[in-house]
Amino acid sequence: MDLLSGTYIFAVLLACVVFQSGAQEKNYTVREEMPENVLIGDLLKDLNLSLIPDKSLTTPMQFKLVYKTGDVPLIRIEEGTGEIFTTGARIDREKLCAGILLDARCFYEVEVAVLPDEIFRLVKIRFLIEDINDNAPLFPATVINISIPENSAINSRYSLPAAIDPDIGINGVQNYQLIKGQNIFGLDIIETPEGDKMPQLIVQKELDREEKDTYVMKVKVEDGGFPQRSSTAILQVSVADTNDNRPVFKEQEIEVSIPENAPIGSSVTQLHATDADIGENARIHFYFSNLVSNIAKRLFHLNTTTGLITVKEPLDREESPSHKLLVLASDGGSVPARAMVLVNVTDINDNVPSIDIRYIVNPTNGTVVLSENAPLNTKIALITVMDKDADHNGRVTCFTDHEVPFRLRPVFSNQFLLETAAFLDFESTREYAIKLLAADAGKPPLNQSSMLLIKVKDENDNAPVFTQSFISLSVPENNSPGAQITKISATDADSGRNAEISYMLGFDAPSEFNLDHRTGILTAVKKLDREKQEKYYFTVLAKDNGMPPLMTNATVFLTVLDQNDNSPIFTHHEYNFYVPENLPRHGTVGLITVTDPDYGENSAVTLSILDVNDQFTIDPQTGVIRPNISFDREKQESYTFYVKAEDGGRVSRSSTAKVTINVVDVNDNKPIFIVPPSNYSYEWVPSFTNPDTVIFKVIAIDNDTGMNAEIHYSIVGGNTKGLFLIDETSGNITLKEKCVVSDIGLHRLTVKAKDLGQPDSLFNVVLVNFFVNESLTNATLIYELVRRSIDSPGNQNVETANASSPSSDYVKIVVAIVAGTITVILVIFITALVRCRQSPHLKASQKNKQNSEWVTPNPENRQMMMMKKKKKKKKHAPKNLLLNFVTIEEAKPDDGDNDGNSVTLDLPIELEEQTMGKYNWGTTPTTFKPDSPDLARHYKSASPQPAFQIQPETPLNSKHHIIQELPLDNTFVGCDSISKCSSSSSDPYSVSEYNYPVTTFKAPVSVHTRPTDSRISTIEISSEI
């Protein structure tokens, strides 16, 4: 009971170990004699390994057949797919399982390792070899002799030798036939308890020896396979004298046991048989049946007389553990007696264990080469220990003799996996000789040992190491190409080729450097220029010669030191500045921008004017040019001098640039009418004049130039009926439509001539009188009408029904005088009322203007420029001046349509032939090109953008000076040449884009500002006749 419990526990423990070790078993069935490359199974599918994702594996899944070196496997496995195929080796069941009983099943076993180690498992595959009908049944001899007594009764049975077929089952012996039995004999088949089919000859008729003593027939034996196989033997039956009794065994079945080490001649068993006859008929002969195997006949001897069975040759339980001996006893009769002797060979511990090493890692000349980078649990070999003995004598343990970084892990019964138990290191141990020991449990125990050599392969597992991971260097620019900068070094803990280091530059390294791959010397192959690049960051690599090579990197930070190798650079070789002629002294002309690519003191630039020039000054640091003179374009249109830029290097470098200052005219002249010569002239227009006929042409001139002198004309008053049109460029006045009776009379038009100056244009107005009538008979009367029309409100047309009627003219004159008187009184009253309301505002405005200051870009240039009013004597010009009331309301210059301007006659104004208007001039600042250095930032910080004012007392005949407004970055643009600043140039810095600030000059008369909309300015001008 205790033995059974121990066996059960051992089996359970073994099963647990096998399960935990990743061992599996898989059974397949294969028929013998299969041709080559027949698919037997698919381990990938049959073991459900297809569910394992390939992404998690370091290497692809592999199936490796594990077999003993020198063996020829009967199957092969596709390593990548796990498919099992037959090989060219013949699968012969009868040969493969020759030592087992005929009725036992035949198996062929192999082991397969599933790699890599992440999914390692050991699979034992058992192939059940199916029998095919590849052998025909054969009789022991081709001629069978049998003797039958002549007195044999009908239906008497006599045993015939049985045929033997190596095949099993249906492929074994299934049937016997008697051929040419001559109706005297028949054949029957009986089945023994062991399942054997035995033929028996049946006597069907009485025999008479004297009539016939011998019968010759054929016996045929057949198996049940497909195709069916058979054989025949000749049967000779001899008719003998009568033998009444046959021998009888005392025991028909005997089972004995004998140790396998029984000496030769040892008695196995003694058979006993008796015969009731006497004499020769009672003499018994013992012999082995032809069904006894050749091995049994070789090992045992049967005494034919005594029936004693003895050991003929040494027994080996491991070769044949049992033997069936069918013994026949015959007294010479036809039917011998039968006895079955079963001999069991018992085991003794006479076999030492065997160690079978099946390599998973293919050996080289009997030695396993294992990389030092092999991971833990790397499978090396499958160790199979066997002991042919039984029970305790066949129980084997396996172990190593000393501590090594390897271990044996059980997987199946008596099978162990040799795997790594620790990381290997070539540098510490290069070779291992593992002694495997196998010992059985016999008494005394027998053991066996085997050596397994493992060499550790040196791997390139140590990358080079730089002495410095971050290398900081500095080198002056303008170096000599090829000069050594530094030497870079690294070390490698490996040996041999794995420790040979090559140096190289990283992919980010610039082309200016070279690194010797052997010595590690870093050189600059080109001259370094700090102005192009001051700092270099790049990587250097150290690579060993291992396979695969390992490399490491270090960062090199190289700074190029500056040398004074660059002269200051002006943004332009030639600067052209354009300034208005009224720019004040110490105002800002422009900004000279200069750069120096060097660094530190080498880039500190100082500016100066060459050839001692007292007319202009330049700031040494900011480059701002200021005048020490007042400009007058009429006296001198341009100034030219040279500016020098010098750096602060130990050996200084300098450069020069040409500066040209061009004095630009401003829009300070308004148009002057030439035709008509005065406001009192008139033009006769016949009433029958056709439409679109040019009836008059006004002509005005402007002393300015360019756009400032281009004039546009427009009718701004008096054309209430829209009878007249004026061409804005030519000044031609045409009749829009044919005159009717109501159009006859005097028409007074207010014509405006306006120049195109920017940003504010200047203008002048004139009265153009047209007398529409059929004829011109009384010029004096017409002149009087013109004079009176000027006295009358400007929005009324003076019409004369009949110019030749004095009474009609008199009535008109009286009406006009009365109306004019009333109008003057009303206007004076309204004017007085308005002035009284505006007087406080006007005083405050004048006070603010008197307190305003001139502002210059720099504080030291701040000054007050007040323009004093000069009194003019009143002149009486009764022919040129009339008392009238005119208010001019004008839209701002930025209005899109200048024709929208209108003149309403309602306030006093002095109309002269050279009436003064209001004009402004100014500049719109521009800048240097975007790539110019920002030296103006110094100027910007100290020079807020000023606002300017002109006092109303400024005299007309004085030079109009203002402080120029300098923008934050630059005021005027320098050009390389005058040609580059032409108005047709596409250069964004051309002169055509320059605008100049406009200063408003007011006429030397009393100015009264009316509260009105910010877009409309109202000017009231009064004069005295």
UniProtKB/TrEMBL annotation:
Which segments carry the region annotation Disordered?
A: 842-861
What CDD domains does the annotation carry? Answer: Cadherin_repeat
Q: Which GO terms describe its cellular component?
A: plasma membrane
UniProt keywords, alphabetically: Calcium, Cell adhesion, Cell membrane, Glycoprotein, Membrane, Repeat, Signal, Transmembrane, Transmembrane helix
Matching InterPro entries: Cadherin-like_dom, Cadherin-like_sf, Cadherin_CS, Cadherin_N, Protocadherin, Protocadherin/Cadherin-CA
Localization terms from the record: Cell membrane
Report membrane topology. Single-pass type I membrane protein
Ranges for the Cadherin domain? 53-139, 140-249, 250-355, 362-466, 467-570, 571-673, 685-782
Q: Where is the signal peptide?
A: 1-23
Q: Which GO terms describe its biological process?
A: homophilic cell adhesion via plasma membrane adhesion molecules
Composition bias, Polar residues:
847-861
Keyword RNA-binding listed: no
Quote one Gene Ontology molecular function term: calcium ion binding
Q: Does Lyase count among this protein's keywords?
A: no
**Annotated function:** Potential calcium-dependent cell-adhesion protein.
Q: What is this protein called?
A: Protocadherin 11 X-linked
Naturally occurring in which organism (per UniProt): Nannospalax galili
Gene that encodes it: Pcdh11x
